[in-house]
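Reviewers asked in the last cycle whether our approach scales beyond single polypeptides. To address this, we selected a multi-component target totalling 891 residues and predicted its structure end to end. The input consisted of the following lines:
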Amino acid sequence: MNRNNVSTIDLVNKSLQKRYRAEKRFRAYGIAAILFGLACLSVLFTDIISKGHSAFLQTYVYMDVKFDAQQLQIIDPTDENQLAMADYQGLIKKSLRTQFSDVTGRRDKRDLYSIVSNGAGFTLRSMLEDDPSLLNQTVGVWLLVDDDIDTYVKSRNSDGSDAFTARMKDKQIVWVESLISEGHIKKRFNTTFFTSGDSREPEQAGIAGAIAGSLFTLLVTIALSFPIGVAAAIYLEEYAPTNRFTDFIEVNINNLAAVPSIIFGLLGLAIFIGFFEMHRSIPLVGGLVLTLMTLPTIIISSRAAIKSVPPSIKDAALGLGASKMQVTIHHVLPLAMPGMLTGAIIGFAQALGETAPLLMIGMVAFIVDIPGGVTDPATALPVQIFLWSDSPERAFVERTSAAIMVLLAFLITMNTLAIWLRKRLERRW
Amino acid sequence: MDTSLLFLVALLLFVATFYMGKKRALTLAGGQSNVRSLNSLPSYYGTITALWCAIPCILLLAVWTIFDDYIIQQIIVQEFPIDIQQMSKSDIGLLLNTVSNLATSSSADPNVEAYIIVAAQRFNNLQWLSQMALNLVFVCVAILFVSYARLRINVKLHARVEVETVFKWFLLMCASLAIFTTAGIILSVLFESIKFFQSVPITEFLFGLDWSPQMAIREDQVGGSGAFGAVPLFAGTMLISLIAMTIAVPAGLMAAIYLSEYASPKVRTVVKPMLEVLAGVPTVVYGFFAALTVAPFIRESGGLFGLSVSSESALAAGLVMGVMIIPFISSLSDDVINAVPQSLRDGSFGLGATQSETIKQVVIPAALPGIVGGVLLAVSRAIGETMIVVMAAGLAANLTANPLESVTTITVQIVTLLVGDQEFNSPKTLSAFALGLMLFVVTLIFNYIALIVVKKYREQYE
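The resulting structure, written as structure tokens, was:
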């Protein structure tokens, strides 16, 4: 009986505590979700940076090398043929032997030689090419070390502990430690990484070829997708009649925007390479595929930009006697351009980070040369990351992370540019 | 004069014809003072003249560059000795390659047979001939069309209308490219898939439980006969997508709700772009992160609990993919939640509901169709995502629902089947296109439903 006397407000007051707790919980879930996202972001970036920062330094070893004409079999140091044929690696071996004169036995010697990178001979060769008078002189040079030694030196604390020895032999560690104590090992900024193409040897591998390939691919994409995308957007916003055909175009564009990128790769493989018989692995085909992929994004953002131009401006121009094309070119386009550029740059950033379609059209080949045009075989930066990430050497892990940092730097620059453009140039009506 | 130089000449020619047309119109009108007697502005006369010259010339250059290699090759093949002509197509292709290499390089290899040297000389000869003929035809075409366009110019010519018609057709062509792309995708995957289904029955592909596409190429080789049952791939794709969605949907949705309902504008302007950075990170970076950081971490922490976790577990790939999709879901949900009219919220608050009650009982139900559409788009993204699974998921086609084991997906198999050397007509290669077809059809269905749902929802509140 008593229960009937309880009024509604009492019930509400009773439940309030619970409801407020639920409210707090719900809020906490929201904050947790955001914190989770941000935590993932920071873990991702810290992980990449902590793995990759060391790749920007490279270990070099100091050596006195005598350009012995007899050993090199060079008679005339201006003759390119003789310079090209000479055995520079032999000079390095000889200089290593003199420095570590106690090393005997074939296997030990081989271990000793493998301290220095097998690409170090090229450094000597280009020195001699630049200055033929070096012949028969003894010069102190800093040479690239092998990637195992590089990893060892980088991972080692200043007192020599905690070092990552990988495939190094105990003797090699002793030799390297003695070199370090003599001050003959030094870390310098890794210019090789930014100036050379791919290589099987981590210490000689660089991203210049991949960056050039990405650049050419992106140039093709920009040159094609921006004009075509803007033209399509103008047609759909300003000219298209409302009929089935226009609807069909719109459905296609919206759908293409959500088609997985790998499907565009299949398209490129079947049409451009299979049907038109274009070459594999060239930036031209990559650019064409990425053009088709980014077009929907550019069309959609350009349409939004055109829509935001107030009709009053168009009406005023039309009223003064301008034709439709004149209104579009003289008024709508310039006013919509910042918005279009913003959308386009974001689309290009997507294209720059895209990997899967490029795998399909064969831009995964091992290419050492830096491409010089859109028809030279090439890889792209994201594909290079994919290729290196497969390599077991620790030195490649560090280089992969460094390449990712370079790629992210490009993307951040492009996106910042887009945001800046939007803030700077976009007008609110 | 080679083709690139010809292009340059053509460009100069177009500029020149523009000024010629403009000047001609002005002369006909009787000078700048009488410009009003012209039908259109003088520059339109220039443009239409240039277009009359440019369109045929560009068509000519395009057609010529596409076909001249093919025709030259045909002539060379016909001049090969009879026994060589009867060789298989691929051998002849190799020979033609040798010929063109020899023709472009100056050094003569003494080991080449005589007929190849003859063919190489002939090749150079024909190329020179083709170039000369192109130059000649180009000049003739240019002169012909320019003089015709010049003759057409008179005071009454509706130059502006003509230019605008061309302009409109150009715009229409650009817009229709989307249709051609879709058609190209469908045709390219469909044709190869049909070829594949001629050797492997479609029922086996759709319902078979065994996937091992390695096939013996020659009769005497040891190797599997190849099994093309794609069910393990579908199951693996679904498993990884499911893991991804269980991460992404709650996190993305709650983030969107917090940002649009609770957060102050200040927090919103900082946090929203930061979450969107996650969407801008290339998938290859996520793949690297999943393979080198998350997968070992999961394996080790699984080991602590005595679980044996595969180093290419579905969990690692799914988790990272989920993180990738969070911003996708949160920004789509954010849009639809913002589109819910404020009056609905105010009504609920007026009845005494707390904010979370309003969100749970009013805002979310009202926004549900839009959210579902967004989730469907996200599922389609997860199914089609390639790099994360290629780098972090396995290659072996296990039919399992255990997220700690290694599974493979449709996209992983497409990549493994098509990267590297391949024979174009083996079922192994063709099966990749059949998988591509499945992927396209499935994502198409998801996208289509999602787009319809989102569109309906938008109309509801507009």
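The longest helix of chain A spans residues 8-52. We regard this as preliminary and will revisit it once experimental data from Aim 1 are available.
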